[in-house]
Amino acid sequence: MALVLYDDGNHKCVAFTELVQGEGIQSNQFAIIDQGEGILLDPGGNLTYKHLIAELADYFLPSHTRYIFASHQDPDIIASVGGWLLITDAQVIIAEEWTRFLPHFCMRGATAGRLVAIPPRGMWLRLGGADLQIVPAHYLHTVGFFQIYDPISKILFSGDIGASLMDGHAAGLPVNDFDAHLHDSHMLAFHRRYMSNNKACRLWVEMVRQLDIEWIVPQHGGSFKGKPMVKRFLDWFETLECGTDLISPADFTPPPREVPSHD
């Protein structure tokens, strides 16, 4: 299902929310279109590839895809990149750390001259007549993790920050009750497990508070719309204990050896 997040007649942001079928983890895919040029954000893997092509036809042609952005290297983010390189002339934008990993998803030579490495502090990107800001979110949850902030729509496409585990029909929709969402969608458990530590959380929050954000839209689950809800999320994330904050000797204690029975 496609959800139009923003449309002023020239600049458009679209989310695709129910393309994963079967056992794969639910994920949201995104497109930003300006003056007929498009960028795909975290287009996903083989579970989403053909469905996303069909959905995009209502917004722009694959031949008008100028960029494919990968927030990081996970299969649910960019495993379909080989297919997109075949049907478009797009450049693939990914962290410097992952440029040598990306060819493993493609035929030999497919990425030659097609990769743009994001430097550690991020960069600006021109799409049509718009400038998009690529901002760092290192170790949240992986080294070389980036997000896209769109100053026109004031949307931060936040990747795994803010992610939750929800049914497809609810994914992408704004969260109404933050406290209920925190537990009902396993957002708290997800962030405790997948985010690295509170230091990274605090540094990220300090950076994004300087942006004029109206909507935080993660790659999994629901979104956080409106300045009060954005502030509620940032206040929570800023104090989150996670990852190495919670680690203990028990996490490095192997289970007792059990010899399989051959009865």
Automatic annotation (TrEMBL):
InterPro entries: Metallo-B-lactamas, ODP_dom, RibonucZ/Hydroxyglut_hydro. Residues 26-220 form the Metallo-beta-lactamase domain. The lineage of its organism: Bacteria, Pseudomonadati, Pseudomonadota, Betaproteobacteria, Neisseriales. This is FprA family A-type flavoprotein. Gene3D superfamilies: Ribonuclease Z/Hydroxyacylglutathione hydrolase-like (3.60.15.10). SUPFAM superfamilies: Metallo-hydrolase/oxidoreductase.
